[in-house]
Amino acid sequence: MKKLFVLLVLFALIFGLKSEAKPIKFSIKINWGSLEKGVCNPSEFGICSIIISLRAVGSSGGTDSEAYEVQGEIANNMLRINLPKGISEKGKNARGQYAFTIPKEMVLDQDLAKELGVEKLTIAAGNYEFKGNTLALKIVSPRDPASGQATGKRQHGTVK
């Protein structure tokens, strides 16, 4: 009976553990300002847009933007991005939040998607907010062209 119990425990450990992908390093660039009618006003406080890329996306020296080397991973249908530190006070909007809007679905570059362990990566349109040094972006499932319904397959990608 003990042998059967030990075998069941080993079986559960071997097949029950999920293999999580390790976080990878990539770059994020945050453009400061307020977004008004699709145009960034860098004289205002807030976040106009973000750019995510596997490769470096610019320098951190300017006043209109800041670039970070970050770590990120896909977990629970979200792209979770961890910055090495909290973002600048310039990113705080009039409501005191580090929030921004992605106006339409954004496809991230294929090299980044592959490094994250998926073929394609699309971020959902919506309102997002940095919480400390963390940003969680919702991933979109692909749609069946014939029905328009979600296929349930994971699809993952560049955020602006």
Strand/helix succession: HEEEEEEEEHEEE
Strand content: 25-35%
- The end-to-end distance, rounded to whole angstroms, is 59 Å
Specify Rg, calculated over alpha carbons.
19 Å
> What is the residue-mean pLDDT, rounded to a whole number?
78
Placed side by side, the strands forming the largest sheet appear as: 4-1-5-6-11
Helix content: 10-25%
Total discrete domains: 1
Please state the overall shape, judged from the principal axes of the Cα atoms: elongated
Number of beta strands: 11
Given as residue ranges, the uncertain stretches (5+ residues, pLDDT < 50) are 15-20, 143-160
Give the structural class.
mainly beta
Number of helices: 2
Largest sheet: 5 strands, antiparallel
